[in-house]
């Protein structure tokens, strides 16, 4: 294995991915200038076949399922052993998704029994979660619309769906929930 390039920001990562060919991208979920999830989605729009392994300090139960639904080829915690990271990279480079036993358990849990235990945010679609996450960080609908190249009306519709699905009444409820669940850094 060889590290072909390294980036400190989302913009650098996107620039490198556009200018060079890589077998796999290791992407941190927390980046200084942009969410790793947003970078993942941009990579998937521009180079859908490029495998991306997401790294996070957060446990699988918080983000893994959502990240995999967003197009990642795998999810590994930063605290994982080096052997797990190498195993994940080798699995993905061979053309398979890397799913740890903990993530496999999350993905195969019986939906009927899991619904009562499942956190509310895990019931959101990928786009709803994206809007929820930005609202949880205190961003306004207009700013979110600009960032995601959507109309304000579309973002407002997603916001309404999020509020309804999560049984909340306003953005303050979303922010409180996101803080309480440790979903924002």
Features of this protein?
185 residues; mainly alpha; Rossmann fold; Arc Repressor Mutant, subunit A; 2 domains; 3-stranded parallel sheet; 3 strands; DNA-binding
Describe what this molecule looks like in 3D.
There is one protein chain. With 185 residues, this protein is mainly α. The protein has 2 domains: 10-108, Rossmann fold (3-Layer(aba) Sandwich), CATH 3.40.50.2300; 120-179, Winged helix-like DNA-binding domain superfamily/Winged helix DNA-binding domain (Arc Repressor Mutant, subunit A). It is 53% helix and 7% strand. The protein is built from 10 helices and 3 strands; from the N terminus they run αβαβαβααααααα. The protein has a 3-stranded parallel sheet, sandwiched between helices. Helix 1 packs parallel to helix 2 (36-46) and helix 7 packs across helix 10.
What sort of overall outline do the alpha carbons produce when their principal axes are compared? globular
Low-confidence stretches: none
The CATH architecture assignment of the largest domain turns out to be 3-Layer(aba) Sandwich
Radius of gyration computed on alpha carbons: 17 Å
Q: Mean pLDDT, nearest integer?
A: 86
Strand content: 5-15%
Number of strands: 3
Note the gap between the termini: 32 Å
For the largest sheet, list the strands in their spatial order.
Answer: 1-2-3
Q: Write the CATH homologous superfamily of the largest domain.
A: Response regulator
CATH fold assignment of the largest domain: Rossmann fold
Structural class: mainly alpha
Helix content: 40-55%
Q: What is the number of independent domains?
A: 2
Q: What's the main sheet like?
A: 3 strands, parallel
């Amino acid at each position: 294995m060889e590290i072909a390039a390294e980036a400190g920001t989302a913009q650098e990562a996107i620039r490198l991915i556009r200018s060079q060919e890589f077998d796999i991208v290791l992407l941190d979920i927390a980046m200084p200038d942009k969410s790793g999830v947003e970078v993942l989605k941009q990579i998937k729009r521009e180079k859908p076949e490029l495998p991306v392994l997401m790294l996070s300090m957060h446990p699988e139960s918080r983000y893994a399922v959502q990240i995999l639904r967003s197009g990642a080829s795998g999810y590994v915690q930063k605290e994982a052993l080096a052997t797990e990271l190498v195993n994940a990279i080798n699995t993905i480079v061979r053309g398979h998704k890397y799913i740890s036993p903990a993530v496999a358990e999350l993905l195969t849990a019986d939906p009927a029994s899991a619904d009562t235990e499942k956190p509310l945010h895990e019931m959101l679609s990928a786009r709803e979660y994206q809007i929820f996450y930005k609202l949880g960080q205190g961003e306004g609908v207009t700013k979110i619309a600009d960032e995601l190249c959507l109309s304000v009306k579309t973002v407002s519709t997603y916001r309404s769906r999020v509020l309804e699905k999560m049984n909340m009444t306003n953005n303050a409820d979303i922010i409180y929930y996101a803080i309480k669940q440790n979903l924002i850094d």
